């Protein structure tokens, strides 16, 4: 501010916002991220503007998740405050998405689609969540980003469960399992086995359910995860 560096001030405000988000000080975080947005728009800095929109989305997303932690409920059954917070997150991600499309930034589009999928899932809009996660999946494959691809499969599996499409969920969870083994991520592999066990229980294929729950158990024991 002293040297009149507006872009520098914008970036510093954004960093402050992200740090405050991690500290759980969401309202202060929004103020700082909004300053990042305002200055970026004033300076005609499209990249900064896109980043600020994404960051504000993240603050509302984190706040929504934080508010809903106390309520152990299925996605979609949310108190008004939580719903409004997640809807705001969604709006900022949408604005970010249209801007990064304009900028032709595919990687940033992938991130926006993933987060839009997650917020729509929490809001109980499972068909919308699926559409966004499919877009996320396509971009992850484009970049050969195996970790993002794995997350997309997992999220697609979760959303299909709530639409009662258990067989489709099972296929997505199997892809999650396959990728987690490729990535040598045992904790995620265990989680995929757990999801498959539950899905086969819903499909009333109990033999297979037992098979996957046993695999989950073995990895949990290996990891010493009580």
UniProtKB/TrEMBL annotation:
GO cellular component: cell cortex; plasma membrane
Gene that this polypeptide is encoded by: Gpsm1
Family: Belongs to the GPSM family.
SUPFAM superfamilies: TPR-like (SSF48452)
Organism ancestry: Eukaryota, Metazoa, Chordata, Craniata, Vertebrata
Subcellular location: Cell membrane; Cytoplasm
Annotated source species: Oceanites oceanicus (Wilson's storm petrel)
Keywords: Cell membrane, Cytoplasm, Membrane, Phosphoprotein, Repeat, TPR repeat
Keyword Phosphoprotein: yes
Pfam families: TPR_12 (PF13424)
Protein name: GPSM1 protein
GO MF annotation list: G-protein alpha-subunit binding; GDP-dissociation inhibitor activity
Main location: membrane
Cross-referenced PANTHER family: G-PROTEIN-SIGNALING MODULATOR 1 (PTHR45954:SF2), LD33695P (PTHR45954)
Biological processes per GO annotation: establishment of mitotic spindle orientation
TPR repeats: 150-183
Entry-linked InterPro entries: GPSM, TPR-like_helical_dom_sf, TPR_rpt
């Amino acid at each position: 501010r002293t040297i009149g560096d507006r872009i520098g001030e914008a970036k510093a405000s954004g960093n402050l916002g992200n740090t405050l988000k991690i500290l759980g000080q969401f309202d202060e975080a929004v103020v700082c991220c909004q300053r990042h947005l305002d200055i970026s728009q004033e300076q005609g800095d499209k990249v900064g503007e896109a980043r600020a929109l994404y960051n504000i989305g993240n603050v509302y997303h984190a706040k929504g998740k934080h508010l809903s932690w106390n309520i152990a409920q299925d996605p979609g059954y949310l108190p008004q405050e939580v719903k409004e917070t997640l809807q705001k997150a969604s709006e900022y991600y949408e604005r970010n998405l249209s801007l990064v499309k304009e900028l032709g930034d595919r990687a940033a589009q992938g991130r926006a689609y993933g987060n839009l999928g997650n917020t729509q899932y929490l809001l109980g809009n499972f068909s919308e969540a699926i559409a966004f996660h499919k877009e996320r999946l396509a971009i992850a494959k484009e970049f050969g980003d195996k970790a993002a691809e794995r997350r997309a499969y997992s999220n697609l599996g979760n959303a299909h469960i709530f639409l009662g499409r258990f067989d489709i969920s099972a296929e997505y969870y199997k892809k999650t399992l396959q990728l987690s083994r490729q990535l040598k991520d045992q904790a995620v592999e265990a989680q995929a086995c757990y999801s498959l066990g539950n899905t086969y229980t819903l499909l009333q294929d109990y033999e297979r359910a037992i098979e996957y729950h046993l695999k989950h158990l073995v990895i949990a024991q290996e990891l010493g995860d009580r």
